[in-house]
Amino acid sequence: MALQNRMNSDQIQALFDRIAPVYDELNTVLSLGQHRIWKQMTVKWSGVKLGDTCLDLCCGSGDIAQMLAEKVGRAGQVYGVDFSSAQLEVARDRAERRCLKPPIQWVESDVLSLPFEDDRFDCATMGYGLRNVLDILRSLKETHRVLKPGATAAILDMHRPSNSLVRSFQQWYLDEVVVPAAQKFGFTEEYAYIAPSLDKFPTGAEQVSFARQAGFSVATHYPIAGGTMGVLVIQKGRR
Known about the structure:
Layout: H1 9-19, H2 23-30, H3 34-45, E1 53-57, H4 63-72, E2 77-82, H5 85-98, E3 105-108, E4 121-127, H6 136-146, E5 147-158, H7 164-184, H8 188-192, H9 194-200, H10 204-213, E6 218-224, E7 229-235
Parallel strand pairs: 1-2, 1-4, 2-3, 4-5
Antiparallel strand pairs: 5-7, 6-7
Helix pairs in contact: 3-4
């Protein structure tokens, strides 16, 4: 949510703990189910293959981690990382009900300081997490550190579209649909943060610049859904 000047790490963590029970349901309702398609695109852009060891950062309720598990098969490994224990509890419960093979390893950690050795993962993903970290460059550097040389990460998030008409529609949708829907669940304040977070979030071009500063040799940002969403695809150089 990129509210560095308004919220500290503990406040952000508490927010996601509070919304954990309804997070997935609200995402489905508010995106008309489209968020699953965007997540599938993100998984595809990560370049995940059978047998890979994968990392899903800011995994939330575990949607993308489950998609990765389906791709890597029994020979692969998937780690889902989030600093919200409540979100991880939901993710763990959902995955166990599906009896996924391999089982996903859930890790409670801040993505600014990952508990993994260098050059460990074949690919990484992040869905709706980059806006929520307090230091975007540092999070990208950590992602770069734990990826193997030549590995790819794909990062999905909401954006402010450059088209003024689409931007106006997005703001109307946030004000008239998202916040009222969240209000029914008792989470008006928690979802009202989205609009100001988008105003502060770096553009696609700025994210590419951050990625290159973090050490990635290839960085491309793909706008989707009329520019209201985007996927940053970044690759660590080969040695």
